[in-house]
Amino acid sequence: MPSPTPVPPRDRADTPWRSEGAPPAPPPKKKMPGGWRGLILAALIVYLVTNLVLSFFNDGDEPTISYTEFSKQVAAGNVSKIYAKGDAIQGQLKTKQPKPDGAKGDYTKFVSQRPAFADDDLWADLTKQNVVVTASPVVEQRSFLANLLLSLAPMLLLVLLWVFIARRMSAGMGGAMGGLGRKAPPKPVELEGAKRTTFEDVAGIDEVEGELNDVVDFLKNPDEYRKMGARMPGGVLLAGAPGTGKTLLARAVAGEAGVPFFSASASEFIEMIVGVGASRVRELFSEARKVAPAIVFIDEIDTIGRVRGGGAAMGGHDEREQTLNQILTEMDGFSGSEGVVVLAATNRADVLDPALTRPGRFDRTVVVSPPDKAGREAILRIHTRDIPLAAAVDLAQVARTTPGMTGAELANLANEAALLAVKRQQAEVTQADLSDALEKVQLGAERPLVMPDEERLRTAYHESGHALLGMLQPGADPVRKITIVPRGRALGVTLSTPDADRYAYTEEYLRGRIIGALGGMAAEQVVYDVITTGAENDLEQVTNIVRGMVGRWGMSERIGRLTAIPADGQGPYGLAAAPATLDAVDHEMRRIVDECYVEACRLLRENRDKLDALAQALMANETLDEAAAYEAAGITRLHK
Is-catalytic flag, 508? Predict the structure, then answer.
């Protein structure tokens, strides 16, 4: 599945959802952190403290001296000028004098007060000493406005500092508690005019589109459904393997219907603080209802939607369950007039709580499977729309050789081919680029490992054993490529893919796959009479196949037609089945593998000449494609 436009980012760190197509929300009113009462109280305290400090400094600049001291300074001829207003006297000395009352420092300007009962010849003394009596104050007093500004400046600075600290604390608590209690609505994050994802950007899952077209039609024409008394499903659950395009489908439904789209991952609702997840769910659904009709999409809902009561939390009611309960409550409150549809995606629909999948909530389940051959070709065409392709490129052939690949894997394949073309300084992507990219995706990147000739020959026999048994087994997948070039963790790789998509497997086909997987070990046994560690990955594949045959698919007469080993490998009391049944499963698995291994060794001994020829061709060429491999083995490829 392609992703033509990126998912919009979140505008707020505490908002776990993303929105597309939502109308602009009015900016929230800014509230003063801590409230106005706290601000007024802080301003009053700062004002009083500032005035006290300023009065202290003002008093210290021009000291008040006694009239006796003033008379002494006049008599001594140390006063240069004075200014008198009533009995208040301001003056300036010619030379500095120590401050009175033992205070530290000296002074030149002073303030004094002439007593009303004084009966001296002050004017005569001043005239005798040539003291200038001025008409303007000697000590300049600041105006009321200047005093006000000086007193308010520190207060304003402290208030701004207080607001800054309060906001930082609020942001920190919001991050730690998930924005608990903050109800500011999320802003739309999609740019106006941006191209929405529609069904034109989706390919390979036409049957799923048909299921979701009902949701699109309901969102476009809700009145027609109401007239008929029909109720649209409140929720649609998209279940499927990773990479099949569940998220893209949800965005395409919203884009096709032209309605706002809110998306979030279920894990983003969960926080350490109990109750935060439920609060976020309420806020998300509240915002969706405001712009209804709308779509709410919850990805990986199995994170919080698992069966309740099975958690390890004390009392069985942890934060995950509270969030799930809130989702159930919100969905149960929907009515047909609200026009809000909930879409959810999961890879594990089998573990969801039954309350989620009951009618009235997620009452429609849509299975999103990997695309078939025609779907893969359509997906490749979408992903290569912006990639210059050579005229000889055959996307249908690429689609035939990629069975089981999902949309995400095909997108990665196209991108890897484009990267290879850039590295090779080509103007177009060729068929060889796509083929090499497929090898890199399926087999792994090549490793520059130099092996001794003896090790290379053993690896060639190992891979030849896989390939030859694949060619000899009736109904086996045809061999596409053999290589003894180290790739990933493997020293060599044999690639086999079917001609057509398979949806059910017979016991004969599965036994053939086991024989082919054991071919490498069997070839080393037949040629060298030794077993090496190179068969580790082969044995893992064999174990998975035979476990499914015996424990899940009823292909053993001794076990019978029952599921002894569930898909998740767990059952009641921590065991998949009774101990005696598990012993029988183990015995049957060993019997089938031993029979297949004997058959693999027999076939290789009978066709030793073909095995040797294939190994020598690999030593000479290192890599053989499908035609060269069949030619080297002397086997005619039968096309079905």
Answer: no
Q: How far apart are CA 105 and CA 100, in angstroms?
A: 9
Q: In sequence order, which residues have a C-beta less than 8 Å from that of residue 605 and are 6 or more positions away?
A: 526
Residue-wise over 13-43: b if at least 16 C-beta within 10 A, else e?
ebbbbbbbbbeeeeeeeeeebbeeeebeebb
CA atoms of 139 and 321, how far apart (whole Å): 76
State the chain's mean pLDDT as an integer: 77
Strands (E), 472-606: 479-483, 493-496
Cβ neighbours, 10 Å, residue 97:
18
The dihedral through the CA atoms of 565, 566, 567, 568 has a sign that is negative
Both tokens assigned to 298: 């919850």
Query: Which residues touch 586 (CB under 8 Å, ≥6 apart)?
Result: none
Can you read off the two tokens belonging to residue 467? 């390939």
- For range 364-380, the mean pLDDT: 86
DSSP H or E segment with residue 568: none
| Residue tagged 């008040």 (tokens) | 64
**Mean pLDDT of the 614-630 span:** 87
Are 78 and 97 contacting, i.e. CB atoms less than 8 angstroms apart? Answer: yes
CA count, 13 A, side-chain hemisphere, 546? 25
How many CB atoms are closer than 10 A to CB 549? Answer: 21
* Residue 543 to residue 535: CA distance in whole angstroms: 12
Rounded to whole angstroms, how far apart are CA atoms 619 and 456? Answer: 7
Q: Return the structure tokens found at 219.
A: 């969102």
Rounded CA separation 413/405 (Å) = 10
Helix axes 519-528, 579-606, angle to 10 degrees: 50
Q: What pLDDT does residue 575 have? A: 54
In 137-237, alpha helices (H): 144-176, 206-220, 222-227
CA distances 290 to 25, 195, 325, Å, are: 10, 23, 22
DSSP alpha helices (H): ranges in 221-294? 222-227, 246-257, 276-290
Q: Please tell me what DSSP assigns to residue 624.
A: E
Rounded to whole angstroms, how far apart are CA atoms 297 and 55?
A: 65
| 211-250 residue pLDDT tens | 788 778 887 887 787 788 877 777 888 888 888 888 888 8
Predicted confidence at residue 4, as pLDDT, reads 45
CA separation for the pair 561, 534 (Å, rounded) = 35
184, pLDDT greater than 50: no
Integer Cα distance of 278 and 280 in angstroms: 5
Rg value, the chain, Cα:
43
Question: How many whole angstroms separate alpha carbon 589 and alpha carbon 82?
Answer: 117
| 317-333: pLDDT as tens digits | 567 777 787 888 877 76
Q: How confident is the model at residue 191 (pLDDT cuts 50, 70, 90)?
A: very low
Active-site residue identified among 256, 268, 439, 463? 463
Per-residue model confidence (pLDDT) at position 226: 78
Contact between 476 and 513 under an 8 Å Cβ cutoff? The reply is: yes
**pTM listed for this prediction:** 0.64
Query: For residues 252 and 366, is the Cβ–Cβ distance under 8 A?
Result: no
* Span 274-318, pLDDT tens digits: 567 778 888 888 888 888 788 888 888 888 777 776 544 444 456
Distances (CA, A) of 133 to 128, 513, 631: 12, 120, 126
Residues 432, 282: Cα–Cα separation, whole Å: 53
Residues 220 and 257: beta-carbon distance below 8 Å: yes
Q: Are strands 294-299 and 132-133 parallel, antiparallel or unpaired?
A: unpaired
